[in-house]
Specification:
Blueprint (H helix, E strand, L loop, with lengths): L6 E4 L3 H12 L4 E4 L3 H9 L7 E4 L2 H6 L6 E4 L5 H10 L8 E4 L5 H13 L3 E8 L1 H7 L2 E6 L4 H11 L2 E2 L5 E2 L5 E2 L2 H30 L4 H11 L7 H9 L24 H12 L4 H13 L2 H8 L10 H5 L2 H34 L5 H7 L10 H11 L10 H24 L4 H14 L5 H12 L16 H4 L6
Parallel strand pairs: 1-2, 1-4, 2-3, 4-5, 5-6, 7-10
Antiparallel strand pairs: 6-7, 8-9
Length: about 475
């Protein structure tokens, strides 16, 4: 066996350490480096003891330990540290070697870095990696993009370590996404959909616990039942599990002791900002980001709670009706809202692909998310089938399966939103999804009045439904004079 290594990894935080162990477990010899070299030593003497690892105390040492073409992956904090490492690696590498960024990087940085590294005669891969610590160790979802010539070089290792799905668990959740920043863009959309999924589940929890008073034991049973049907997913599964965990520092359940303020790492915000730039209505992720922002104003909310009033008590029994039936209505509302959230994510992917000339395969994108990642779900099989049937499908809502699913759920969906409004329970994501559905299905929206307003105060012009061309009206001279 050669003493040279098949793969190099820089960055040994929890994700990096687990990823390295995954790579080695697939029959590869791996070289590792971390800026704090104590982490290298701890890994080699600990979890990697007796395994096919080479611990390095410098970037130079790591590069020298690799077989050609060299494959060096960075799992470090996104931002300037990545640029600094690239500049450190370039003089040490040779033509045909591959630099890989596996961090949560903004796609625009990957666009820039791909061009920069290619100009130096090297190959560059920006890959989304999803699945958290467990996925990194046991099999993540991977979304690689960048220099296409690099794909045959990294493909054997990437597809070996990725999560597997299919009847025989032999389909890797890793496939080439597209050029430059395409991989990191797809990962960003994954994360944005994840934001929406989590907010929707939290709203289902709120309405079930507050409107009909389900206990944590009852919530466990409800989510367990949901996880056996069309809502089956990793996030439903872990939500179920959370309701069963007792507080080891006191009485009751742990979830009830957790402070209700949520943070964010930025990818949801990126998706929302880029949707605005593209002019596509990714309203679910935006709502989910704002819900987290509002949750963080805990002190202000506590002060407001003693001043601001909600609906009168006593409506609960009138509004809800049969308890079991209402639980099913919440399930249907959650499923319909989830469909809208994913529909928005794929519309944004389509707009970005057109903007950046990325030849994305949307069925393959759904395939990448079926295992290993946070949004993995049975539901994604339906999305894969929809795009396999119609690769240029304009919106998932127009696929017959999803059209019928939302139509069947909409009465329950509307009822849940109305009940929550009557009880003063905020369901911003459920409501936003329903508003998106209603807006998308209407052939005529009130934007005609909006355009008239813009033309009135700013001469922005408008188009007519009965004539071609662009028009402007002197609204002041033609308006009706108000009565004295």
């Amino acid at each position: 066996m050669s003493d040279l290594c098949d793969f190099g990894l820089i960055g040994l935080a929890v994700m990096g350490e687990n990823f390295a162990l995954n790579v080695e477990s697939r029959g590869n010899r791996i070289a590792v480096f971390n800026r704090t070299t104590e982490k290298v030593d701890n890994l080699i003497q600990g979890r990697a003891a007796g395994k096919n690892f080479v611990g390095c105390h410098s970037v130079e040492e790591l590069v020298k330990s690799l077989s050609t073409p060299r494959k060096v992956m960075m799992l470090v904090k996104a931002g300037p540290a990545v640029d600094a490492l690239i500049d450190q690696l370039i003089p040490l590498l040779s033509a045909g070697d591959v630099i890989i960024d596996g961090g949560n990087t903004h796609y625009a940085d990957t666009e820039r870095r791909t061009k920069y590294v290619e100009e130096k005669g090297l190959l560059y891969v920006g890959t989304g990696v999803s699945g958290g610590e467990e996925g990194a160790l046991k099999g993540p979802s991977m979304m690689p993009g960048g220099t296409e010539a690099a794909w045959p070089i990294v493909k054997p290792i990437f597809q070996a370590i990725a999560a597997k799905v299919g009847p025989k668990d032999d389909i890797p959740c890793c496939e080439w996404v597209g050029p430059r920043g395409a991989g990191h863009y797809v990962k960003m959309v994954h994360n944005g959909i994840e934001y929406g999924d989590m907010q929707l589940i939290c709203e289902a929890y709120l309405v079930l616990s507050e409107a009909i008073g389900l206990s944590n034991d009852e919530l466990y049973d409800v989510f367990d039942d949901w996880n056996r049907g069309e809502l089956q997913s990793y996030l439903i599964e872990i939500s179920r599990d959370i309701f069963s965990v007792k507080d080891d520092q006191g009485d009751g359940y742990l979830v009830d002791k957790i402070l209700d303020t949520a943070g964010a790492k930025g990818t949801g915000k990126w998706m929302s900002q880029l949707a605005l730039d593209l002019g596509v209505p990714s309203t679910l992720v935006t709502t989910a980001v704002y819900a987290r922002s509002l949750s963080a104003t805990k002190d202000a909310r506590v002060r407001a709670s003693s001043v601001l009033k909600g609906p009168e008590a006593g409506r609960k029994a009138i509004a809800i009706g049969d308890r079991k039936e209402f639980i099913e209505q919440v399930r249907q509302a959650l499923y319909a809202s989830k469909i809208c959230s994913y529909a928005q994510g794929f519309v944004q992917l389509q707009a970005a692909a057109a903007e950046h000339d990325w030849p994305l395969n949307y069925g393959d994108c759904a395939l990448l998310w079926r295992g290993g990642c946070i949004i993995r779900a049975q539901f994604l099989d339906r999305i894969k089938e929809a795009f396999d049937e119609s690769p240029n499908l304009e919106n998932l809502l127009l696929n017959p399966y999803f059209t019928d699913a939302v139509d069947a759920a909409q009465e329950s969906w509307r009822h849940v939103v109305v009940v929550a409004t009557q009880l003063g329970l905020p369901l911003p994501a459920f409501s936003t999804a329903l508003a998106y559905y209603d807006s998308y299905r209407l052939a005529r929206l009130p934007a005609n009045l909006l355009q008239a307003q813009r033309d009135y105060f700013g001469a922005h012009t408008y188009k007519r439904i009965d004539k071609d061309g662009t028009f402007h009206t002197d609204w002041i001279s033609q308006r009706k004079q108000p009565a004295d």
